[in-house]
Each structure stands twice: as structure tokens, then as C-alpha cells.
Amino acid sequence: MQENGLKITEFVTLFNLEVLNKGSDFDTALLTINDVNRPGLQFHAFYDYFDPRRLQVIGKAEVTYLKGLTDEQRRKCFDDLFLYDIPALVIARGLDCFSECLESAQVHEKTILRTNETTVDFTSHTIEYLNNALAPCITRHGVLLDIYGEGVMITGDSGVGKSEAAIELIMRGHRLVADDAVELRRISNQLIGSAPEVIRHYIELRGIGVINVRQLFGMRAIKTETQLDLVVHFEPWDQTKFYDRLGIEDHFTEIMDLQIPIVTIPVRPGRNLASIVEVAAMNNRHRKYGFNAAQELARRVDRRADAGSGKLI
Fold first, then answer.
1. Is 245 annotated in the active site?
2. How many Cβ atoms from other residues are within 10 Å of residue 152's Cβ?
3. pLDDT band for position 304 (50/70/90)?
4. What is the pLDDT of residue 249?
């Protein structure tokens, strides 16, 4: 698992921000917290629980308050704020920068940026982007597809038939997200899967080689990312192993502290793996909506047995 950081220079480019002052760490500073702070309380000298790693944003409310202060009071507000190792201060709504703010930033070598977005829009867009960019990420070996709206990751040993099943599923109208390496990011209580950029849209087939799914099958056959809803594990058929034939109990695998449903599919010649994966995806969706066919069958058998024994039901 890894934690990412977003460079301030990249953030400036992504959000088309105006640079009013470059701090000493402008080229190296990282955003590592997926939240922002509006330093209204800090301008009242309240720094308890203040996290300097967050991006600082001031808008019309803060500017209106600062306008009511004397020059010396305003200067002290910014001096106190810039004593902390903040990544940058952003002024929203395209508002003018106080001369005291600019002078203090130059003395303390802090970065000041400006955006034309409203404070609410800028903070919401920033938090949404940082939630994705800074999400913890791991890489798993497998094939990730979107099947009937369900994100299904096929896992198993190399050569067991994952890519072959994926091609069959793509030809049936489903969409490829990633082959071989699946990047999983935890965002809130969801796992979002995608492909590393360098191998995106490519899939390897033994005997044929690497193919570009987007070029061969068109845009309808690919998807950039999807939520992971189900893991389908392929393994060679083992005559000595018991495989679940009813599916009454749900099975899960833990990925990044989240429980993801998993089904194990034994592989042997003659089994149509693509069809089985399709059914597994549809069945997983049914279970999410509260319907379990195995449990329903067990209840029907119990009712029939009770009726045959003469019990009242």
C-alpha cells in the first residue's frame, strides 16, 4: 500500500490557479491531506487542533472580516499563519490580496495562489480531487471488467485462463478496465479499480500476444475505472477438494480492510468460464438487493419437508 502526495506545482496547473507569490518550497511542497481549511478561527489566534498540512483557503467572509481590522492587526494575522509550514494560501473569488498578506508571505517565503471560483466551489472541487489523488493504493494481479454494471476482478495463477475468459466477455459486450495489473484505491468505503496508464486498454493472450482492446473492439469495450464489487478466483480443478454447490453462505476476501465478496471457480476443459463469470456477476447483484437463490431453495425444501411430516406451517 502506498500513500501519494500531489505537488503544489501540479495542483496549480490542474486548477488553473494564479501564482501571486512563490514560496521557498513552491517546487517541492506536497498536498498530503484530502481536506482544506478556512482559517477564520486562526485569524482570531485560535490554533488548537490546527493542521498546517492542509491547504488554506480564504474567501469573502474572511476578507470582509480582515477589512475591519487595522493594518497592524491584519499583518499579525498573516504573520501568525505563515509561521506554520502550510503548503499554500489560496484566495478565492478572484479577490484582491491584502498588501500585508503579500508582504508577510514574502518575508516568510510562503506561497499565495488565487482562483476565480467561489470559495464553496473551489473547496468542494479540491476535496473531491484530493480524495481520488491521495487515496491509498495497492496493485493486484488479475483482470478487472465491468459486467452488467458490476466490477468483477478475475484472479488466479498465471496461465489459468483469466485473459481468455476476459476476451470472451468483451466480445459479449462487457468492458475491460485492466489486465494483468489492477490498481485498487480505497475511497471512503469503496474500492475503485483502474489500470496503470502504460498498459491501459492492453490485454495479453498466450499464442497471439498483446492486443489493444480499444483499437480492435472500439470504445464500447473499455472503461477507465470501476468499483470493485466481486472477486472471481480461478483455480485448477482439484478432485480432492470440496467445492460449494449450493452457495448458501457468502464468502469474502479482505482487501485494504474492506470485505469483498469472492467466489472460487474450478477450471477444467469443457467449462464455459465466461458464462460462469457472467452468472456470478448477476447473482452478486441479486444478493446485494437481498435475494439469495440458495437460501430461498433451502426454505422451500424445509417447507415441503414440514408439510410431508404433517407439521403446521
1. yes
2. 28
3. confident
4. 74
Cα 40 from Cα 36, distance rounded (Å): 12
Burial class (CB in 10 A: 0-12, 13-18, 19+), 9: middle
Q: What is the pLDDT of residue 139?
A: 94
Would you state the cell numbers that stand for residue 160, as one nine-digit string? 489459468
3-state secondary structure of 56: strand
Active-site residue flag, 180: yes
Integer Cα distance of 68 and 45 in angstroms: 16
Selected catalytic residue, list 48, 67, 96, 245: 245
**Catalytic option among 175, 180, 201, 229:** 180
**Helical ranges in 46-118 per DSSP H:** 60-67, 71-82, 99-108
Task: Tell me how many degrees the CA angle 259-222-182 measures, rounded to the nearest 5.
Answer: 40
Identify the active-site residue in 60, 141, 220, 304.
141
* Cα atoms in the 13 Å half-sphere on the side-chain side of 257: 7
**With contact defined as beta carbons under 8 Å apart, do 262 and 229 qualify?**
no
Q: Is 162 an active-site residue?
A: yes
Is 110 a catalytic site residue?
no
φ and ψ at residue 35, rounded to 5 degrees: -150, 165
How much is the average pLDDT of 253-277?
91
pLDDT digits (tens, 9 = 90+) for 85-135: 999 999 999 999 999 999 999 999 999 999 999 999 999 999 999 998 898
- The arithmetic mean of pLDDT across residues 75-80, rounded, is 96
Kindly compute the dihedral angle of the four CA atoms of residues 226, 232, 233, 239, in this order, to the nearest 10 degrees.
-170
Residue 1 has pLDDT above 80, yes or no: no
